[in-house]
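Submission sheet (multi-component)
Chains listed below:
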Amino acid sequence: MIKVSVVGITGFTGLELIKILLNHKGVEIAHLCSRSRVGEPIFKVYPQFSGVIERVVEPIDVELLKESDLVFLALPHTVSSGIAKSLFGKTKIIDLSADFRLKDPTVYSKWYGVEHPAFELLGEAVYGLSELNREMIAQAQLVANPGCYATSVILAVAPVAQFLEGAVIADSKSGVSGAGRGFKEGLEFCEVNENFRAYSVSGHRHIPEMEQELKSFNENIRIAFIPHLLPVQRGILSTVYMQVEREMDFFKLYSDFFNGDYFVRVVNSPPSLNSVKGTNFCDIYPYYDRRTKRLIVVSVIDNMIKGASGQAVQNMNIMFGLDEKEGLGGFVFYP
Amino acid sequence: MIKVSVVGITGFTGLELIKILLNHKGVEIAHLCSRSRVGEPIFKVYPQFSGVIERVVEPIDVELLKESDLVFLALPHTVSSGIAKSLFGKTKIIDLSADFRLKDPTVYSKWYGVEHPAFELLGEAVYGLSELNREMIAQAQLVANPGCYATSVILAVAPVAQFLEGAVIADSKSGVSGAGRGFKEGLEFCEVNENFRAYSVSGHRHIPEMEQELKSFNENIRIAFIPHLLPVQRGILSTVYMQVEREMDFFKLYSDFFNGDYFVRVVNSPPSLNSVKGTNFCDIYPYYDRRTKRLIVVSVIDNMIKGASGQAVQNMNIMFGLDEKEGLGGFVFYP
Amino acid sequence: MIKVSVVGITGFTGLELIKILLNHKGVEIAHLCSRSRVGEPIFKVYPQFSGVIERVVEPIDVELLKESDLVFLALPHTVSSGIAKSLFGKTKIIDLSADFRLKDPTVYSKWYGVEHPAFELLGEAVYGLSELNREMIAQAQLVANPGCYATSVILAVAPVAQFLEGAVIADSKSGVSGAGRGFKEGLEFCEVNENFRAYSVSGHRHIPEMEQELKSFNENIRIAFIPHLLPVQRGILSTVYMQVEREMDFFKLYSDFFNGDYFVRVVNSPPSLNSVKGTNFCDIYPYYDRRTKRLIVVSVIDNMIKGASGQAVQNMNIMFGLDEKEGLGGFVFYP
Amino acid sequence: MIKVSVVGITGFTGLELIKILLNHKGVEIAHLCSRSRVGEPIFKVYPQFSGVIERVVEPIDVELLKESDLVFLALPHTVSSGIAKSLFGKTKIIDLSADFRLKDPTVYSKWYGVEHPAFELLGEAVYGLSELNREMIAQAQLVANPGCYATSVILAVAPVAQFLEGAVIADSKSGVSGAGRGFKEGLEFCEVNENFRAYSVSGHRHIPEMEQELKSFNENIRIAFIPHLLPVQRGILSTVYMQVEREMDFFKLYSDFFNGDYFVRVVNSPPSLNSVKGTNFCDIYPYYDRRTKRLIVVSVIDNMIKGASGQAVQNMNIMFGLDEKEGLGGFVFYP
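Outcome: structure written.
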């Protein structure tokens, strides 16, 4: 049994990690820590777990955490890298924040507005997009778990990146849980319900992450990316438009690219959030529009699972040589 | 391993049964049958199961079904009892339709508008409200799985039924999945969304079921019951108002009554659908209003799980001497 | 043209007042005031009004407000009565807060937790339930506009209040706009959407208001009232259960009671929020359940209109001898 | 007073026309006709209009309709042109179907799968995008009211069409009312709610309409257009990506282009459905992304109003020399 701990359990990604790990047959949960609500039973933080989880919220104690084989950090960026510095070398780390996703600390500074708090570790971090970096993840001491939007877009683009001309257009739509738990201006029910809007039009932090990872397939990749807020709890659907001059059998090309990847399903009709909500799947549908020479790819994920905690556990399974699917057998939230 | 089959898998309760049984460690699924779509892979009926379930929809073949230790019938009423007649005596049966819930065939005729198709079996059927009839369920050959509304109201009333004066008022609100899968007039998105309404005001079929079961606690019980349609997928919340002249420690009374019942949680603040959605729990909150001498009880369940397929599996576990919780460890759909 | 002003325009009731008054042919808007955002154009507060409303938010200046024929106060309780004191005698007032609804200042103190800030005016205030108090409203200098829940319940009960035995059970369900604009804990999208819950189970502030007004019909009236939060923007549906021993022609009784009341429609099938959302109507459906001797009445209103700003304008029309319907001809928000 | 009739009132666009026309000071409603429910009071078709509209549904009688100054046809395509043929020359016509939008009958046949039922009238029809074709509309006997998606995309593209290189990418998201009233497979509440999906990926019928109208600005225009289904009642948001090599002051360019157009608002932050829902406005936000040389334009409309019945009335106002805003002063549905 692998001993794992989760740091940052009062947010949605921490909660989702707990739910997955409790059903995982290969792990034993060592510590569940948070900066707030220390000492309270977890069923006080989440009344839904009354009778289900007996544990108490623990403080973040690096000495105790070191006893774990793996620590998941589900903390805000900049906070996360601080803890990571103390833990690195003593335990494996999967960081769900943005802190170790960008290789170049100047790019980090530009997009996150602060100097990188642990740039000395950037060289150690492996970008944890499981399907693309499986072998490096297997060896990693520190995995930077990808952003939710980035996951949905990179998987849609990677198979054809080498054939692209011009900029990629990625139009993404996300459920509200992507914004995290707790109050944020503009996320009141009366503002989101029956509404829809674009945001971060002038630049979203997942753009450098997407371009960095896709550069290994195409040095010149550039992405125009606009995220939108859907009035639903969960799920991201990205519609990606790419200029490809020559028609190919894209269904086969995608299927071959993801051959052996259980969690990526290349499908032959447009998928919906209902196809994946509650699961670790990414469903991808490619369609070539001859009139405009655009390859249009629709990809869907559950932002909390394949877009965050599920992929984190998938990466853990890879790091410890477990079945990649272990713990990730949840069924769709439908109806 | 118990061999189980499900008949009627194209509806929501059948789908939910499949999802639960696939995670159940004590069963082996023998046959998945339906009246329609026979021969198609299940992932054609539910694209969400692509790559997850390989099986094909089978026709309803009584000879094959007899090889099962247990058959779940997830069929419309009147259809269900027809199949049950053929199977009775050869295999155990849990019927999720309304056909065997009412002991008195004249009451059935009155509320369902047809003569009972299998009244000779009525004496064999045990009403499958797990917490109340556990011992009879353990011995049963035929279990009538309770209605969703009935489950939420009976559990709220039973502990105090003997103390009641006057009629019980049960005001229930249900998510739309309770109406089943497929088109029904008035269930279009534009009619349900941003809307709310009462229905079956002149009498809902779950009333005789509630009164029949509560009569064992109080011969004179009468219930005024109004269901309402919530613009959500899942969940039932019932607010029950009961006249009790003398104040008692109702929290203790309810806790004692359900002592040892893992799936009933007596809680000390009003529960929400979020407390139970995705689980087999029924959360119950009692509050005594001295001003009006009304005991007000709020109960919540997931209509698809404790209100249907989850309780069916709970009953199966009881019938076969398994851990009552087996297969029912799902976590809340939250966020 | 009547000169009217609105104080408190950054909240939902203030916004709704502006929308109604701009379409009202008998009024001229003098001042639109607020405690916050003074000096900003209204289309900065509500971008939806860009190009539609040119006015600027004004400070609350009692000297200027006195020039109005009528001032609407759309302010929090306790704040409202402070302004009302300064204005009383100089201009007519319609107060949409709770400050002047309760005749007895000790009852106010009990439910609102503070001493009444202007108890000397309580004797002057008329409870503005238009259909019940039309003649007193016509003469009033100060109208206390009713609470939204109170409106929906009082109209459902008043016609039969004299026949009732035992406590009235009022089970109400409200859309989220009833909680006002801006952040409140528990009203985040991810907490309200796909959820449903009861609240204020131990006592809601609209109870004394309901009982006070219904006492003129039945001295012994007592109400058990539980509000619930619906995942919709607008609307209240109240299901009211009343013990009436003798069956009557309740449809006729209600129709006669509201004869001549344009905004109350007695209907012969259960109404939905869609019946009234966006309008000043209250639809009422009575049904007598012989089995339990309960008269069950379903009433629906738009909480922002008949439950707040619409009824306020209806009261203004009565006070100034205008057509009661003027300005209130909006159509349902459907689809 | 202009005498107007509406043919096809049981659908959503017909309903919306009635609501607008009842508030229009320059018209008198002559006939409200339908193929179904003839003879029933309109408040039977729409219970929400009980007490508000007294009229009865009339049959479609061309002789009677000819007495109108203008007839709105809110009928399915192919049905609409049949009626139009009988009426043309006797009364002005605004057709809300797709029948007269495409100038070329072979293009119509290709996209609608049937021969055009009234191709002899195609030369008479004016495409009713009010802001672009105001002068021709003023002279027209037959106006083809634009499609909802087409309206949102054409207004976003027209001002810069002459500067574009490569294909335009139009990613649109629509509320469910765009699919019309009544049951359609896949539009059940449980399928749409908490879900999101692309549809008509292989080609939507509004594409030829968009390209036809934009060709007058740029002969080589080509559009890749993907519509998506939002879980909301109303509203379309289109995110349009256009390659423009040289940066300009696009805010000024758009503002100048729509100078004098009351119903198009060029805005300086991304608009939401809440900005326009319930109104005839189209809000447009241009943003230039230097990194990718893409001009990104977000446009929002209410699909039932500016996307259908509101624009139809705007066109009527233009045809009869009325104030273009008359009858279209509705406020946003917010909260």
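Remark: The CA atoms of residues 128 and 145 of chain A lie 5 Å apart.
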